[in-house]
Amino acid sequence: MSETKTIVQKAIEMGEFTTLVDAAKKLGLDKKFDSDGPYTIFAPMEKAFEPIPDSVIDEAFDDPDYLMDVINNHIVKGKYLISDLMEIGSLTALNDKKLEISKDGDVKINGIPIEKEDIECSNGVIHAIADILIP
């Protein structure tokens, strides 16, 4: 059975990506990723933001260009399941930065392991990661 929830709906439903969803909403990206696609999102789970002081997060939220660059560094056009990632060495994020894929038992993006893979959505797929992909 195929998933009927969009990337945004699924991320909200899971409750593990609160800061990422808030950032997307602040930039108006929630509407884009609720309809367009397909996309692959390497979504930092909430625990990725815990060590960061609130003041630093607030600063990022107050700088739309920086926030957009960070968000776009987690998104790739096209749907790439874990089986696809096993076959390729890199992807290009929406901000045109290269994301390196390594496979040493686990699949990693820029050295960050994918903790929850292949969360299928109607317009793409989410892979949950435990850290932030800083551009």
From TrEMBL:
Domain FAS1: from-to ranges: 4-133
Signal peptide range: none
Entry-linked SMART domains: FAS1
Matching Pfam families: Fasciclin
The organism's place on the tree of life at top rank: Archaea
Protein name: Secreted and surface protein containing fasciclin-like repeats
Provenance organism: Methanococcoides methylutens MM1
